[in-house]
Structures are given as structure tokens and as C-alpha cells.
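User: For documentation purposes, I need each entry recorded in a consistent format: the amino acid sequence on its own, followed directly by the corresponding C-alpha cells. There are two entries in this batch. Please keep commentary to a minimum and don't merge the entries.

Assistant: Recorded as requested. Entry 1:
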Amino acid sequence: MAPRHKPTHARSLFLVTGALAASVVVLPAAHADTAAPAPLTIDAPDRYLPRGLNLESAGGTGDLGRMERDGSEDFTGYRWTPTSGTASAIGKDPADLSAQRIGGFASDVVGVYTPADRSVELKDMKAGTSIRFTLPEGQTYQGTYGDTVLTATWTADGSVESLHLLRPRDDGELKDTTVTGKDGVKPASYKVLGGDADTLAIWVSGDSTGQVGLVDTTTGRITGVLKGTWGSGYTQVAVGGTYVAWFDPAYGDQKAHLLRRDALDGAETTVDVASSYDQRAYIALVGDWLVSLRQTESFRNSDAPKDRGEPLLAVSLTGGQVRTLLPHARLGGTYGLNSTPDGGVLVAGGASAGDWGVRKVTAAPDGTLALSTLRSVAPKAGTYGAVTLAAGDLATSEPDTNYLPSLYKRHLDTGVSSAGGRSLVAQPPLSTDGTGGTAGSGAFALGDGAFAYPAGGGIDVRSTPDDAVSVGVPGGGQIVDASGRYVVFGYGYMSGFGSYQQYVIDREKPGSDKVLLTRPASAAAVWGSSFWTPGATKGTVTSTDLKSGATETFALGKECTPTDLQAVGRWVYWTCAASGDPAGSGVWDRETGHMIDVPADGELGDGYVVVHDETAGELRLVDFHTGDAVQTRVLAADLPGYMAHGAYAVDRFGGGVAWLPERGKPGAMRAVASGVPTSALTAAEAHAERSAGRWTASWQLSKPAAPGAHVVVKDASGTTVKTLEAVQRGAALEVVWDGVDDGSYTWELVAAAADGQGAELRLNGAV
């Protein structure tokens, strides 16, 4: 407990509406090492997009790939993941492409090439053995295909001179087979366009019928040229048991061209492939089916779920029917779709991020296709962008848990020991041009179950996706403060940016124009119908009742203009940080007329302030609820040195505190009860209307009421004529009485505090 101190020069409090003098008492902050209540951890939902998995090669007993890590957008190094068992790292982690080239093709063999010593290690992941050798002089590494290494030699002008297939022999020697063709056909490039376990498709020259040749990896012979093939950077080749297909969408051709392997000079057939310049498709052959998958186009908002991945399609080569094998799948690796040694295809896909997995497409004996799941791919945690909290209603802006950044809410119980289910508040509309943007950014919890946020030419107020109310405002800005029906919009204190406006919006004002007051921008706060701003005299703060116009003023004790104001019930929190003004901060107790010394730049609750100490990396709660002592305790440690606006939120309506340990990064949110006794239940603002046989009344309370709040209506004789159960929304209550006649009635509201602290609230008046 800190002793109460009187300042050397006490200032007087003056009320415009009445005479009252009070001393200004400054209470120095004492530090208490008491432990904070245990926080509640609220894990972020799954990210909308599946975890990234770049499959590079598929063998018979496992696959090679890189997976997106937790906590970042980085990928692991290369890993071999067996069909059953634990993944093992291949090469450096993280991957260092300048130091190692790792890959494979339709095999359990993985090649690791090290440029520094020009060595290749062939790792047989099924047998658990490996062989290392050095490339012959003059040859450059181009890739590993099965147990064969492809190399190239070069002419003086930089053209490919020859291709070589290197395979270690059992006697320890290296077999070097030069790729050759007949009748003048020869390799024209080092690039491999596709193939299967025994065949590679490459660019060739010397044949007038086509530019793609097939190479037997055992003999090195070019066994045939695909008739009618042309060349571009988009050409790809798929090899099956019966057919070979080539596909090149570069020139608008959206057809796969098929030739029988036993009659490459015969007539071709074609199959339509869904592909475009922006979304190139990749193909594979599985039995008598052509499997295709397009590249995923980010934020294609006209069909947003496809951001997860395009459909994996299959077209029958014999009947022409089309099947959707997976609703969403994503390409990976050099060849997009990864052929397996047994003629299947491996791909990452599923219905959603929570249903993602490594799937295998195979041909059944009856000619149909079968789809199996080899393993699941765990979803990645989403991200919280900002939090706002009032009356237990916690809203979070979530940049990546929906197809576009959206606003979601939960309800925290009074003691912040549990969080209710998550539900959507606002999401962007779908659009065809990718400009869907965000929804709910800059949201502010109002205390009545609703949230307000800037939108279009003003603000939107909503509690669910279907109850939005849009309020037009002449100028732009952000929400400065809000309480129940009143929202302060525009700009707060501004320095050096010219003249900006501030608007007080009354959501209950009749008509379409909801702007109650327009004024120059400044620090401002609203609680109930009390609107707090810097006073006319420097060093003072004034409240104006937005209904009656009554004013109340107090002195700061410093000749400064507040740069921030906040109000909760009896407490008014101020900070002075303007250039040229003396710095200061404090909390004014309206009941006792005392000024309490507390740190600046915090968030005000009922009887406490939460501040972030950047130097210590701590979130601290400064408790002053007794009015004559200040105690400080740590809510969270090891926080970032800087926490942006919205990284933590204080429930002004008797609730707790929520914060993001790492805002903008995948992970969890924390919430904790303040541990500070709340003030008694009061009505911060109330209004009632009677017309055409209907009476509607509502009360914005200082904290949530317990279930059972009701209004008793009596006639002029004192007889009870109606008991109305109050509908509760956050810390607000509402009743509606139909059937009112011309008689005189009185009403009494009876409500108890949900947290059990303080006396029962009883209010009365005339209908």
C-alpha cells in the first residue's frame, strides 16, 4: 500500500453545473510481486490455406519433399517420408540450394549433388544403402532419375554437346552411357520434360516430325520422336503404360496430345485440359486416364475456396468421362504431379486444411481409378491480427483463417476461465477482380454485443454477418472510442497533420443522419452519455453529457493538453505527450476528487490500467481500485519490445484482459481475469420510447447482469400489470412491452451483477 501524498500545489475541481471543491491527491505506484491469475490460452483456429508441402519425388516406399514449418512461412529442408515410419532429413536443413542439389524421380533413390567437390551420393531409401562418386571431368550435373544420374557436356559457345547417363556398377566402376539417336537425331537441351521410371522425355533435333524424343535410361538410346511436338518453356510430357502425352499451353493450346507408345508415328488423339496462361495445368497418365491439375491462383475471390487448390481431375482416354478426384490439390516439385514407379501419381490435396494429406492415384485392374491416403498433413495454426473486448465479448481480426481477412468473436466467461465457441462477425464480399480486401479491421467492442469498425464512407456495426447497420460519416478516420450507442469516429489527437475532424455518432438518433456532433480532432473518450475532451483551459478535461448538455471539468495538475483520454465509470485516465508540453499521466477519481499517479499509454479498466513495458517486455496491471493505493503485477513476460495497437485489450465492462504474445504470427492468444474487484452495477446510459401501444426501453450497464434481469410494470394504483424479462446483449438490457394503453404506468428494473460483486441494481421511472 502506497501512502497518500498531497501535492505541493493542489488544484481545485470545478463543476459547471454545481459547486464542489476537492483536493488533488497523487498516489505513487508501488510494485507488488503478487502472481497474476492463471491465463487462459485460446489457440488460433486452423489457417484457411493448407500447410505447404512441395513433393519433389515419389518412390514405392516413400516420398521426398519439403514442408512448411510451424511458426513461420519457411520450409524445412528435404525429407524422405516413408509410407510407414518417421521422416528423415536429406541434406542440409534449412535447404541450401547453392551447396546441394537434392532430387529424384519415380524411385526410392534420392540423389544429393554437392557442387563444391562435384560429388553425387545416391541414397537408396528402401535398402538403406548409399553410393558416392565424383562426376567425370567436363560433365555437369542435371538431375537424378531412378538410380541414374543425368549429366551434360558443353560446346565452346555454351550449347549442349552431349548428354550422359551415369550409373554405378557392382564392381565399383562408373558406367557412363552417352545419349544417342539414329538418323541424326540427338539431344538439343539438358532439360527433362517428364517420363516414368525407365524413360525420359527430352528436347531433340534432327527429326522433321517433332522436337521431343524418348530416352531409354538403361541403353541411352532415343527410342522415338513424338510426332507434331513443338517447343516452349511450358512443354511437358507424361508417359504411361500404353500412351505418351505431350502438352504445351504456351500458345493457347488447351489439349493434351496422345500417341501410342508402340506407334509414335501413328495418328494422335487429343483430350481437353483445363489450363490458361495464368493457371498452367500439369498432366500425368495413370492407366487409361489423364490426370490434370492447374496452378492455384491466389485470392481468386469469385471462387474463393479454390485458393486452397484447384480440383484434381481425371479424364478417361477410352470413354471421355471426367472425374473430380479431389476438390482441392496443390502442385509441388519440378513436375507438379509426381509419378510413382508403379504407374500411379502422388499429390497433396483434400477438402480443406483440416483434411489435407498425401494422396495416391492408381489404376485398378478393372480400369477405374482408386484414390488412397498415404498420410495426413497437419493443418497450420492461423494468426490473430488484433483483439477487442467488452462485456466478455472478444473479437479478433484474423488475417488468414478465412479466404480473406475477417472478424470473428467468442464469449469469455466472467472469470475468464473458458472461452465459448467461435463465430463469424464479418467477412469480405466475393469479387471477381481480387479486391475483396478485409472486413472488420479496426473493430471496437461496444459493450452491447456489437462491434463497430470503419467501412466504406463511415462505419458498420454488427454482431453477426446478417445484422449489419451502416452509418455514413462525412469524413474518414478510425474509431477513437465507443460505448453502447455512441461511437467517436474520425481522428484523435493529431500533431503536425493539419486540421482533422471528429464525429460523435449516435446509433439511436432518428433518421439516416446519425452524426450527433462534429468537432476538431482531439483526445476523446465516451462512457455512457458522457463525452470527455480536453477542456477550454489548458490543463483541464471536460465531460459533456450528450443528452442533457451538462458539463463536468477537472484539472490535470499540469499545463498540458491530453493526447489520450479514456473513461470507465468513476475513472478518467489521461496522458499528456504532446511536443512542448510537460509529460504526465494519471487517473481522476470522480467520486473522491483524487488524482492517482499511474503510467502512461495504457488501457483503462474498472479500477486498473494495463500497460506494456517495452524495455522489460512485460504486460503489467496497475491496480488502483481502492483509491488510496496502487499495486502493480505482471500479467505476461517475454513479450515483444513493441506491441502495436490492438495487441492487447482491456474489458472496460467488468471483464478481463486479452493479449497476443506474438501478434501477426501463428499461435495462441491469452486471456485472464483482472483480479480487481469491480464497481457496483450501474446504468451508464438509458433510453425509452413509447408510441402506438408499444414501449421499448434499454439500459447500457457498467458490466453484464446475471440471468433473470426483469422489469416490473405497475399501473397508477400500484398493481403489477406486467413483468418483462429483459433481453441481454453484452452489458446491455432491453425490454419491449406491446399493448400499452393510455393509462399511467411506472416501471422498475431489477438486475443483479453477473460477477456477483456489488448490490443489486434497481432503477425506476414512468412509462
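Entry 2:
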Amino acid sequence: MRTFRALLLAAPAWAVLAAAASAQEPPAGQVADLGEVIVTGTPFGVTDRASLLAVEVLDEEALAIAPASTLGDLVSGLPGVRSTAFSPGASRPVIRGLSGPRVQVLTNGLGMIDASSVSPDHQVAVDPAEARRIEIVRGPSTLVFGGSAIGGVVNIIDDRIPTEPAEGGVDGHVSAQYSSVDDGRSFGARLKANAGPVILSLDAFTRDASDYDVPVFPESALLLAEEGEAPGEERSVANTFVKLDQVGAGLSWIGSRGFIGASVKHVETTYGVPGHEHEADPLAPDAAAEGVSIGLEQTRYDLRGELDFDAGPFSAARLSAGWADYAHTEFEGDEVGTQFFSEGGEGRLELIQRQRGGWQGVIGAQLLDRTFDAVGDEAYVPRTAIAEQGLYTVQRYDRGDLGVEGGVRVDERSLESAAAKRDFTSVSASAGVFLRPSDSWFLGLSAARNERAPSEVELFAEGPHAATGAFEVGDIDLDSEIATSIEGTVHFGAGRFEADLHAYHADYEGFIDLRPTGAEDADSGLPVFEYVQTDARFRGFEAEAEVRLWEDGDRSLVLSGAADWVRASSDLGPVARIPPWSATAGLDWTSRRLDAGIEVRHVGEQDRTAAFERPTDSYTLVNLKGAVRPFADRDVTLFAEVHNLADAEAREHASFQKDIAPLPGRNLRVGVTYRF
């Protein structure tokens, strides 16, 4: 804490130095960058074509016709991104082969205050349907969010706290869709209305889906061979239903120099967990197994505000704060099983420096206070109090043809349970340089050193964990995980052609890994896995390109392609559940009234596996999509999609469930959206 207090006292000095540096005029004028402004990781805003970060964006137009699904499944397939694919009710993003506590899922820049990073069968307490925009940042150079973002960030940006008045006094969005593969139905609506400077927002969303269909018997051929069994006739994955209801409301006062607002959201979800079963009677081994379902409930309150300054070294101050009460109950049939609770708050204050002569930056502080608890037979992690304080700055100087960017962050993190109390001081830093040899090219090279303190599970776990099929044992003596990385960035755009390339290499010192011991727990019969530290290396790339083959006014024909690859090794062998390479090609027609497209995605086999891990075969998915806007004077869109047209067997290697729950088979999805 002494380190943190000293840095807080030094904050005014940081501000003076940053202001002095920003007052220096560059020898050349600023060159305006074209592209979409990204706020995740760079609060002062940088366009995607001028960013050293690897960023993907799902905007409001794309989200309006996106599938009703969990967050992990929605973003899966973007370059460098996959899903844990545990079930249709629970899937988190996997970024560059990393998941769990190494990938931060945020709502408007703040943490979820849920238990989704504790276990892969725990749902993220946010639904993509509430998003107006989703930004996915790949890689560790996200100092704004601390060590828990050592793998990347997925930021859900909504408009529940309005920052701008409604267009025409009232605006909104209504959508409905149906999917055949799971008899799924969803409906959502948003409304924003003005009352002078006061803006009200309301939103609601509901989703109901049954068990989903698959092209083959759910168990993989490898698993059946090990069990000495033949495939059955079943062509659906049992216990994969989902039911979700969510409501939210927000209120803002918007003035000439900023805004202040508050919101509340309540979400209730019930979903099945495939393969996670318990015997109906422990004294009767032959009794029928009961499926496990999970009931999740969270109420969350948020406060956000921004004040613009007329003069001085800073142009704006931003405040964000959130508090949530989260409960997660596992039901064994109708009986209450293990329960997980998370309650706490998080806050962030940022001072945005006034841009002068190509210099811009931010200074910020972040506070977190959260309590995690578990009760029941699978309460393998004791009650833990978690507190964290962070101080950071990110600076960027861009003179047009040449620029530099860098930052530093210091965190104090405390985790206290009945088992032990651990305190960690983490220091992270990044630096990069970029060039624009011509208007068409942006070339960047960045390096980062990031520290991540161990999570409560990695430190204190001791007990059976059915979701991972292991008896997990933590280590209270774990040190912080340190990643040293380097990444090259290329953006190119000229005429009708655009391309992006990111290549990276990361060395992990003290990589925290869950490894088998070879022993078996006497009570549960599960293999014993322990959290250990080793050195690891991750390297890979992501590439995207598109060419506008033909265009005339608002009509265009675009050919696009993308590919990614990651390889991860440690001193103990290959890292588990690393996704194989993938390549995607698409052809899209867009016009004012009609959009249509075809996509072919191939995912390679993965036979480079860790102990107790089975390989997966390659697969190819063919997807068709179309959208029609039938009315010239009304913003109505009718859309349809056929996913997995060939009904191919596909198994996500990053999933613990890949051998019992393949990805859904052929699916026809139809829907309608109306904006007003």
C-alpha cells in the first residue's frame, strides 16, 4: 500500500509533466487518420487505422441482426478469438489461446463483478443484446485495465446511461428473431426519450431456447472408442436449454459541458449444463442421473459522468462506478446444489489531457472491492475478499509521419480468505513506435511487460470441480505471472484494397497452469490437478484483408478474407486447449435495399495437446446471410441466415465440452428489426 500511496501523491507531478510535454509543438503538422474511433484501451480515442492495439469492433448495425447468443459465441470466429463453448448458456471469449482470468469482460470499461472467470460453466452476467457496440482488444497492451487483461479485453458498450439526446426527441429499437436449431425465440426493445436536458432510457430483452441439434451423436469418436461404445441415435445435446430475462433503465442530465447519469439492470437466467450430472440417489449407483441447471441472478447499479474543461492541461474528467449483487445457483434436478455469490463495486476516474501539437494522453485511477463466496458440495474455493487499487497513464505523440506511444500502470491487489492472505504489487508498462511512410501505410512495433496477480481460484482452490472434470488444488505461494511481449502491426489501405496484420510473441515467466498430478481423489474419483508455475511461450498472427471488386454509388461487391494461428508451449509441454489455425473467406453484396453474402470458414485439426486432452479434427462451415429493407421511409430490416449449411460436425478445441457437445448443426435464423 505504501507504493500505491506514493504513486497517488505523485499523480500531480505526472499531470504537470504530461501537460508540459503536450505543449511542445511538433515539427510537422498532424495528419488526420480515417477510420473508426476506438476507446477501449485508449480513452482519449484513436482510430482503428492508427492503433498499435489489435482491435475488432461490432457496431450497432451489425449487432442489430446478430444471433441471440452468449458473448463468447457471438465474438467467436473473429480473428484471434474463439469461445469456451461450454454450453449455449455459458461461453466466454478465448483470445489468442487465453481465457478465464486472463481475459477481461467489461461493461462500459468496468468489470462484471460476477463469477464467470471462476469456472467455464459460469455465464457472463451481460448479454450482447444490450450492447450498442462491442470492442475486442487482443493482446496484453491494455494498461488501462490492469493485469487481469493480460490476454485481452472484450468491452460491452451500451447506452443505458445516455450520453447524447434522443434523435427527434424519441428513438429506439425493436427486434425479434427465431432459430431452428434450438427452436429459439428472442425479443428485445430499447427506448430513449428527452425531457429537456433529462434523458430517459429503457430496455428489455428475453430469450428462450431448447436443446440444440447436432449432425452426429454428441460424443466424439475418440471418446466412444475409449469407452468401448458405439454411437447412438441421439442428434441433440441434452440439457442445453437457455431462458433469459433482462430489464434495465437509465437517467441522464446532459448539459453543454458534459453529463451525469445513473442506471440499474436486473438479469435472470436459467440454463442447462451438458454432461454435468449427479446421481439422483448417492446410495443407488444405478439410479438415473439428474441434469444440472444453473440459475443466475444479478442486480447492478452504475454511475457515469463526464465534465469538459474550457482551459488548462486537461480537456475532460470522466467518472465511472458500478456496484453489483450476483448469485449463481446450481440445481441438481430440483434440489439446490452449490451456490456462488459475488458482491462488490468498482470505480474509475480519468483525466483526459488536452490534445496539443499531436500529444494526447490520460491519467487514471481504479478501485475494486469485491467479495466472492461459495456454498455447497462443489464449493472448492473459500470465501475471499478481493481489493485492488491501480494508477495508470497512457501517452501518445503523433506528428503525422512518425509517432510514439507508451504507458505504465501500478496495481496493489489483496486476496484474503480463511486459508491465507496474499498481497501483490504489480507493475506493467508498454512502449511502441509507429511510422506512416505514405498515406496508405501504417507500420507499428510495440513491446509490453505485464504482471498479473493470481486469482482466488489459482491460490485457494481445493475440491472437486465437475465443470473441468478434476479435483483442483491451488497454491497459496504462487507469484505474479509476468508476460513480456512484442507485436508488429501493419495497416494498409489504398483504393479498393485494405489489409491488417498483427504478429506477436509473448514470453511468460511464472505462467500459472493447471496440471495433472497422476493421483486420483479418493472421495470424488476425479483426477487431481494442481496449479503450478512454469515458463511459457505464445506466438501467432492475425491477418485480415478485403477488396471492393465492384462499386457504384451505394452498391458494392466485396471479397474478404481472414486467418489466424497461435502456438503455445511451456516447460511442462504444450498448453491445453489452444485453438488450431483458421481461415475465412467471404463475398458480400451491399446496397440500400438488399444485402447478401456467403462465408466459408475452415478450422484446422489440433493434435498438439496437453496431458488428458484429446485432439480435434478439422471442419469447414458454410454460412449464408441476407437482409432486406423493404420500406424507403421506415428503418425496417428483415434478415435471414443459414449457418453451417452442410450440417458439418464441428468441435471447438478450446472447450472443455468438445467431446460431448459439438457445435450446433444446420440452423436457419430469421428475424426483423425496426429502428425509430
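Summary note for entry 2:
Residues 1-33, 278-288 have pLDDT under 50 and may be disordered.
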